[in-house]
What we know:
By secondary structure, the protein is mainly β. It has a single domain (2-8, 17-122, 150-186, 210-222), classed as Porin, CATH 2.40.160.20. Helices cover 3% and strands 67% of the residues. It is built from one helix and 15 strands. It has one helix at residues 2-8, and strands at residues 15-26, 29-31, 37-38, 43-54, 59-76, 82-99, 101-102, 107-119, 127-133, 138-145, 153-167, 172-183, 188-196, 201-208, 212-222. It has an eight-stranded antiparallel beta barrel with strand order 1-4-5-6-8-11-12-15. It has a five-stranded antiparallel sheet with strand order 2-14-13-10-9, with no helix packed on it.
Amino acid sequence: MILLSFLQGYSQKGYEIGAEGGLALDRYIIKDPDNNVAHAPAASGVVGISLRRNTDRKLFYEMALLFKEYTESLRWAGQSGYTSYNSDEVILLPLRAGYSLKITRNFFIAPVIGFVAGYKPRLDGSGGHGFEQNEFNTIYYSFQSRPSAERSLLVLGQGGIGLDWTAFRKRVRFSLQGNYYGGLRNVKTVDIIYQYNNGGMQAAEKNSRGSFINLNAGIKYAF
């Protein structure tokens, strides 16, 4: 429906084109029966271009082309340090709809919802091994992406809210947005095998749906 609105109204005024980018915190689901594998920050970035169509009823529609590189991290319970590394590179294609609520003449609040399709050009297949040691614990571990769980296509939903400021007779729009992108299906599983303090070998896994939290800044020009 969003795409149809773009096509039907292409000859009308009220279009903006620009760029956006920001910080992302990637989200994962950990399964460890012994709760030794803990969550750790997984910061990454996202950047791209977008096209916006404004309507006379304060509604707007957006299409975007975004590029994102996911980050994976590994931390052990009771330890403050963690390991992180770059993972999948993904192309994201969001279709968004929003509503512009006027605060002052040039400031607006804009809640947004959307649907996002994503594509991984290359399956990561990441793996590695290492050990962590402090005065209390010694941990040997290895991790490997599970080939049977790798998917090239991502499906996400988007929800967020933004603050817009227009300038130069409303020809330029500056935006600051907070978004949550929630994956609808699992796209990657990393198997983790570890030995905790000379005990037996234990197994855990980390699953990804491609979900992330995003703080985004953007600029658009009206034409």
